[in-house]
Amino acid sequence: xxxxxxxxxxxxxxxxxxxxxxxxxxxxxxxxxxxxxxxxxxxxxxxxxxxxxxxxxxxxxxxxxxxxxxxxxxxxxxxxxxxxxxxxxxxxxxxxxxxxxxxxxxxxxxxxxxxxxxxxxxxxxxxxxxxxxxxxxxxxxxxxxxxxxxxxxxxxxxxxxxxxxxxxxxxxxxxxxxxxxxxxxxxxxxxxxxxxxxxxxxxxxxxxxxxxxxxxxxxxxxxxxxxxxxxxxxxxxxxxxxxxxxxxxxxxxxxxxxxxxxxxxxxxxxxxxxxxxxxxxxxxxxxxxxxxxxxxxxxxxxxxxxxxxxxxxxxxxxxxxxxxxxxxxxxxxxxxxxxxxxxxxxxxxxxxxxxxxxxxxxxxxxxxxxxxxxxxxxxxxxxxxxxxxxxxxxxxxxxxxxxxxxxxxxxxxxxxxxxxxxxxxxxxxxxxxxxxxxxxxxxxxxxxxxxxxxxxxxxxxxxxxxxxxxxxxxxxxxxxxxxxxxxxxxxxxxxxxxxxxxxxxxxxxxxxxxxxxxxxxxxxxxxxxxxxxxxxxxxxxxxxxxxxxxxxxxxxxxxxxxxxxxxxxxxxxxxxxxxxxxxxxxxxxxxxxxxxxxxxxxxxxxxxxxxxxxxxxxxxxxxxxxxxxxxxxxxxxxxxxxxxxxxxxxxxxxxxxxxxxxxxxxxxxxxxxxxxxxxxxxxxxxxxxxxxxxxxxxxxxxxxxxxxxxxxxxxxxxxxxxxxxxxxxxxxxxxxxxxxxxxxxxxxxxxxxxxxxxxxxxxxxxxxxxxxxxxxxxxxxxxxxxxxxxxxxxxxxxxxxxxxxxxxxxxxxxxxxxxxxxxxxxxxxxxxxxxxxxxxxxxxxxxxxxxxxxxxxxxxxxxxxxxxxxxxxxxxxxxxxxxxxxxxxxxxxxxxxxxxxxxxxxxxxxxxxxxxxxxxxxxxxxxxxxxxxxxxxxxxxxxxxxxxxxxxxxxxxxxxxxxxxxxxxxxxxxxxxxxxxxxxxxxxxxxxxxxxxxxxxxxxxxxxxxxxxxxxxxxxxxxxxxxxxxxxxxxxxxxxxxxxxxxxxxxxxxxxxxxxxxxxxxxxxxxxxxxxxxxxxxxxxxxxxxxxxxxxxxxxxxxxxxxxxxxxxxxxxxxxxxxxxxxxxxxxxxxxxxxxxxxxxxxxxxxxxxxxxxxxxxxxxxxxxxxxxxxxxxxxxxxxxxxxxxxxxxxxxxxxxxxxxxxxxxxxxxxxxxxxxxxxxxxxxxxxxxxxxxxxxxxxxxxxxxxxxxxxxxxxxxxxxxxxxxxxxxxxxxxxxxxxxxxxxxxxxxxxxxxxxxxxxxxxxxxxxxxxxxxxxxxxxxxxxx
Length: 1330
Hints:
Layout: H1 5-13, H2 17-26, H3 29-42, H4 46-55, H5 62-80, H6 86-100, H7 105-120, H8 132-141, E1 146-148, E2 151-153, H9 155-168, H10 176-183, H11 190-202, H12 212-222, H13 228-256, H14 265-285, H15 287-299, H16 307-316, H17 320-345, H18 348-353, H19 360-370, H20 376-393, H21 414-432, H22 437-450, H23 457-469, H24 471-474, H25 478-485, H26 493-507, H27 511-524, H28 530-546, H29 571-575, H30 577-591, H31 599-615, H32 620-632, E3 651-654, E4 657-660, H33 664-683, H34 693-700, H35 703-710, H36 713-716, H37 718-725, H38 736-762, H39 767-793, H40 808-819, H41 824-834, H42 837-857, H43 868-888, H44 891-895, H45 905-923, H46 928-933, H47 948-968, H48 976-990, H49 998-1013, H50 1019-1033, H51 1040-1054, H52 1077-1113, H53 1125-1144, H54 1153-1182, H55 1189-1222, H56 1232-1271, H57 1291-1315, H58 1321-1329
Antiparallel strand pairs: 1-2, 3-4
């Protein structure tokens, strides 16, 4: 009888169960499977057929159960083969899932084994039949008992064995995603889940990159069961390794000129972007996953970030509930990284112990670069991060609104570096991402307008960089720029100047922006606010500098205008020169209105004309006419009338207030410089004669200027002569007469300086003109002395010298002529100036003033002062002269037989050298090598080809020789000020040495030798020299042994707190004497504090490592292996410090700063010992084992040596203060207020220092007890609990105080009884009670 599928189906529908069973019995296994296969391939009634077979195969019968198992075993590979239509395969699997729970245990076990073997053999690549496997495992887990080998096993145990076998086997990479999806429906224990996730994460490296995003998606869904932290860690670490691999391949390719790419960069970035989207989506749905993500980042303190994790964080920040948390974490991580790097770079001890910190700033910038691959979900976070860093860590206004200007190249502190990073992030994001450009520009401009109370230099620098890098792009947002211009008159002047300088390239390519600016500036010219008018002047001057008229000289300054690859500096000069000329003349006519405004506005105009003329030489005629017509107002019209100047017109009065109306000296200075420059250009033949020459001749040397030049200096100041000669003349700033006289004096001094410069430059070294210069200086000096002396007698001692009007270039020329010009023809005339010591001192003092101004502001007054390059060249020339003068004319020779007021010229030169070196390090750090090369005074060395360390070492040796000369001259001839300056110069130069170089070692050796052999008892010099020693030594090796030796010397010099103890005389360093020991103590304690900071930092690092190791490896205990090198170094450092402090606490220090500082450092030492003890308690919990022997020695040292001496020191400090207070009893009545104040200060000091120290000692002992219990080592055997406490009762002192009180009581009773005429006993009793 032939059995067909139709017959079986019909029997099933007719409910003929017995008949159905008979028919199925007739079918062999092969025929049954063939029937199912044929039906499935046809795709018709397959599900009905399988249902019919199940209906005729009861589970409670052996044949039925076997037949069902046969169907399962056949259908699973059939569905997996891929021959069936997806709908048919899905129907079959769905039907099998429904019937799975009815299968007997043995069948379920067989099916489970079938799946495991198929997976091992790589036969489950399509994954269609894997949907059934979770149902099989679930049913298997519910089975009570299964035959396993010779015994029985529960279904749950069998399921665990299957899963273990599956996870231990090799998976085909093609089925990893399907298996991960399958396991989502499998019930797993925590251990099984961890085992599974670790297995999948390991397979990441074997998969194709395109398969990673779907696998990550399935893993994130799987993490809903648990193991969230493990999943996130695995994902981040995988991409971190991929990034590192790519970077190494890129470096290798660059070095070998061969492109080696395992993974294409764009493919990797796109995959990372997709994975980030998956993770962010999962965090949106599962906030527990978000919490685990932050825990994961915070736990891995040692190396928490990478470009991928930063990008992931910035994407997560788009979720509102995590936004603040993300940016706070990033801000903390960035500052911590910068601080850690700074701490490590400043200590050789730490550099040797730890590898260099990975740079978070580089990672963030890498994230910005990576975001160009379609990471739109990251860009908004980058913008927020950049502005957050700039807002949080930008420059802050200091005292009186003063701001320390810091350029991006000189950023050093963590805050400055973080601010610079924010600017870099925004700039790179602006370049790469078009959609966010408008937002970045708008936010920058908004901050320039709104942050008027705080400095905005960092935002101006950012705007300047944006404009320079992409000016054409900014034209799309020109409306935002013009809107900002409307606020110019309300902004601080510095902001306006910076803003206009930043947008200057835009003015050359956008007529609309230029026209809008001119309109705003014209309005500002009539503003009621002074700053508004000054802003207008600044804007107009900037336009004049940069819109050059055709034919103007291409001066070196012109080339320094802000340019870019897209814009030529003189783009308007080519096609619209006529428009430029009329435009500039129109601006000049607007600026002439300023000549009737306040002195500040005029001053700005005069100072600006110098630069305008050098940038735009064709405007010389108009500028000179403007200046000379203004100057004419203050000259007498009659040529023969002397003095030629009308100084009274320069001063105005408003009520009782007197103020300067016209800064005549600056006007004259500007006129002179413009005239000299114009004449110099014409004499060089750079300007061709034209039709205007005849008109120009009239004002080159007008008659009134000739009168001024030839006027006798005495006649010049005659209007004020009576004021200056009157001994009773008032110069106080509190009265109008004094203010008026002071203004007169400053004007006269300025005019004299301008005439000195003019006469020297135009005199061509003729003796007559040189003598005129000297005469002018004498008049200047006389007025200066009067002004200084008179102002010094007033209540306000602000006798600051007015800023010199000499130009930086002239100061350089003058110093060169005075000190280094050996031309025979000039010898006679220059000897006139060289013979005046006051004039020489004045010249060097002006140079010092200019250098200081350059250091503080980055520019100087006068022509060429705004140009950084020219200022640098003049600085090199001045330094070369000062260096030559100091090295060739020793101060001892110069000062012999002279006792003049003020410093010697050599000393001023040395002070100038110190300021110059400081300025170059601060302002021109990248040009230090060029600077040192230009100072080749003696010609002893070949500056070509030598590196910075060799160049610096050459000059260090010169200054060392000078210092050795000072020290060998004897104590009577020792010049403390010069020695201090030399040490300061050595300190500045030593920072340029490479700490790994031989020159650096020689520098340390020489400094140590000086400290050991110098025995001059000069406190300031010893402090400077020891500070230099410490700053060098810390970059060479740890200074703890040095501190120990110094503490021994201090103890030896000051004696012991116990007067009966004789201290062994030791002298490691001769510079430490009885006189210098207290100041040395403070220096030593300061260095102790730095060492403690390093130790504290190291312990915190190790504690972080323990936490991260515990989270990675779980809470499993690991045996304590050999002592870690960091732990060993910490123990040795603390041990040496304890030995050093042991010396100091026995030293008879004077009560005051030394004792207070020592108390604080002792408290910190015990606090860090407590931290170390806690660290070992934590270590014992994770790694049980024997404590290191070094730790036991450290505890013994602290308990037996330091702690008892600390209590003795406390007693010494208190008894010393009491004694000092008791000896002054006779003076208490006279100085009662001072005594009360001193007592209050002493009580306050004691209440802080002594209890803190005792508390920290006891906290240390408390945790030692806890560590003893944990480690089973009795550490308290070394500690002796002292009865000495801050609140102790000293019996001797108490008895003395009681006797004194009783004596006073008896005396008062006798006095009262003699005065009282009569009384009762009750009051007497009352008095006795009192």
